């Protein structure tokens, strides 16, 4: 009985926009699900982009998670997953830092998923979801089959929507937590982009 | 890139700025070249060759091989025996993932000119692109034995060690950088971050003092302020901390919190104070030897 992992169009778009904004570095972020979610079949409704520099350093990660946790409590959400794109184009395995962070997330949300971006499949006109998912359950990492990863409302619509966003170069306005730390006025929730994505 | 640059002189000045500041704006560089500067290349004079090199590298970054090939052929025509142009050829092979060819060219350049630093650094990037981080580290440490004043290289080595979670070695690299520039608040902050990540009460103390120095040099360094707040609160709640240092820590964290709320003038400043201090205990990711 395989459990599915679903990503809302918003979460998926944010992941891709983040990757496109910083194509030359590794990037990471967390995935949010509704509070009280059934952790067997996870539906990620939002994504918060974290860093594009030195993903392995702890202090800013702790600050970011605290602020996101705070936000989640007001919005009825919970940190339930993590996404990552490697710096090297061919790298398809999660690095130790990603695993550590996701294991920490899994302490609070069992069966948290680690979504890895397949760099080679990214393009301005998206034809593939370019993601692979591994799930942490019972202390072990298990790779999820492609059929169990769904982008809502359906893969094709999401891909078309993201391709439109990319053609408009909206990733230039995208803000991650590192950008916020460089300039506190920048909004890591990307509220203004949300309306354009929907 | 909202402003429409119509005049080629403005574009030339902008590209010059980016060259001097070493900015990575590859998409914009290629767009500006295609839209404006390509038609006015003759007017650029000697600067034109620098622009071609810049556009070439930007085009490789965007994988726009047409523009890259055009730039390279022009440069090759003008400077047929140049080692600098040969290095650009190696970069083109690197961009096409033909790493063996790239390495051959770079080795030839280094043989001809042992002082050619840039080619040695490109070898490091070739290993890094393939995910061969250990080899990249070895190549870079060999390079630094010869060119030990190269700050960019020390920073890169620090990043490589961080990715391998070799905290002591990463800290050593930042120490080298601090020897060169002891008043660089970014280096101080980076050192503090590494020490904090290492964990343990002593490292926490070191991190706090480096964060303090960074915040003193630049009270607008948000990472230093957050770091100061984090380290102070952790220290104050640690049993190993003597009471005088506890008071000191609490004062420091209050100062940092105030600075942060001043920087952010919206309502979100509420996020800084009580909620963060409340959440402190739950989300420690670093080594568990903090307590």
From TrEMBL, chain A:
Superkingdom, natural source: Eukaryota
GO cellular component terms, A-Z: EMC complex
Residue ranges crossing the lipid bilayer per the database entry: none
PROSITE patterns documented for this protein: MPN
Domain MPN per the UniProt entry, residue ranges: 5-142
Family classification: Belongs to the EMC8/EMC9 family.
The protein's name in its UniProt record: MPN domain-containing protein
From TrEMBL, chain B:
Membrane topology of this protein: Peripheral membrane protein
Chief location of this protein within or outside the cell: endoplasmic reticulum
Subcellular compartments: Endoplasmic reticulum membrane
Domain EMC2 TPR-like: 86-195
Keywords linked to the UniProt accession: Endoplasmic reticulum, Membrane, Repeat, TPR repeat
Similarity-based family: Belongs to the EMC2 family.
PANTHER family associated with the record: TETRATRICOPEPTIDE REPEAT PROTEIN
Subunit: Component of the ER membrane protein complex (EMC).
Protein name (Swiss-Prot/TrEMBL): ER membrane protein complex subunit 2
Organism: Daphnia pulex
């Amino acid at each position: 009985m395989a459990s599915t992992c679903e990503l809302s169009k918003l979460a998926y778009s944010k992941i891709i926009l983040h990757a496109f904004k910083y194509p030359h570095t590794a990037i990471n972020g967390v995935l949010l699900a509704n509070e009280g979610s059934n952790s067997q079949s996870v539906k990620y409704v939002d994504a918060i982009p974290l860093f594009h520099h030195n993903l392995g350093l702890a202090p800013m990660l702790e600050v970011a998670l605290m602020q996101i946790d705070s936000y989640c409590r007001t919005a009825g959400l919970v940190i339930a997953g993590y996404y990552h794109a490697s710096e090297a184009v061919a790298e398809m395995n999660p690095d130790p830092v990603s695993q550590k962070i996701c294991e920490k997330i899994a302490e609070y949300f069992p069966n948290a998923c680690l979504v890895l971006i397949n760099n080679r499949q990214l393009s301005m006109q998206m034809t593939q979801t370019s993601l692979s998912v591994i799930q942490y359950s019972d202390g072990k990492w298990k790779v999820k089959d492609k059929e169990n990863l769904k982008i809502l409302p359906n893969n094709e619509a999401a891909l078309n929507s993201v391709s439109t966003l990319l053609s408009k170069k909206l990733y230039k306005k995208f803000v991650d937590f590192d950008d916020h730390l460089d300039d506190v006025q920048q909004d890591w929730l990307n509220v203004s982009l949300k309306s354009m994505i929907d | 890139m909202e402003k429409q640059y119509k005049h080629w002189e403005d574009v030339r000045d902008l590209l010059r700025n980016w060259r001097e500041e070493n900015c990575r704006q590859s998409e914009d560089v290629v767009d500006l070249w295609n839209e404006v500067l390509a038609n006015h290349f003759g007017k650029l004079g000697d600067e034109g060759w620098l622009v071609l090199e810049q556009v070439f590298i930007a085009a490789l970054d965007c994988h726009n091989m047409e523009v890259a090939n055009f730039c390279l052929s022009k440069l090759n025509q003008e400077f047929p025996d140049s080692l600098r142009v040969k290095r650009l050829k190696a970069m083109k092979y690197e961009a096409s993932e033909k790493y063996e060819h790239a390495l051959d060219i770079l080795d030839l350049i280094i043989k001809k000119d042992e002082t050619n630093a840039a080619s040695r650094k490109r070898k490091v990037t070739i290993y890094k692109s393939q995910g061969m981080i250990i080899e990249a580290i070895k190549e870079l440490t060999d390079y630094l034995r010869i060119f030990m004043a190269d700050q960019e290289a020390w920073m890169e080595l620090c990043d490589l060690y961080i990715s391998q979670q070799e905290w002591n070695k990463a800290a050593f690299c930042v120490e080298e950088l601090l020897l060169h520039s002891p008043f660089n608040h970014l280096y101080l902050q980076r050192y503090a971050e590494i020490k904090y990540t290492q964990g343990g009460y002593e490292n926490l103390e070191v991190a706090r003092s480096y964060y303090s120095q960074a915040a003193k040099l630049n009270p607008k360094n948000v990472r230093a302020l957050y770091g100061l707040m984090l380290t102070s609160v952790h220290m104050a709640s640690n049993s190993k901390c003597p009471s005088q240092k506890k008071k000191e820590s609490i004062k420091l964290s209050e100062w940092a919190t105030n600075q942060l709320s001043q920087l952010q003038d919206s309502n979100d400043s509420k996020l800084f104070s009580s909620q963060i201090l409340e959440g402190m205990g739950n989300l420690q990711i670093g080594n568990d030897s903090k307590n």
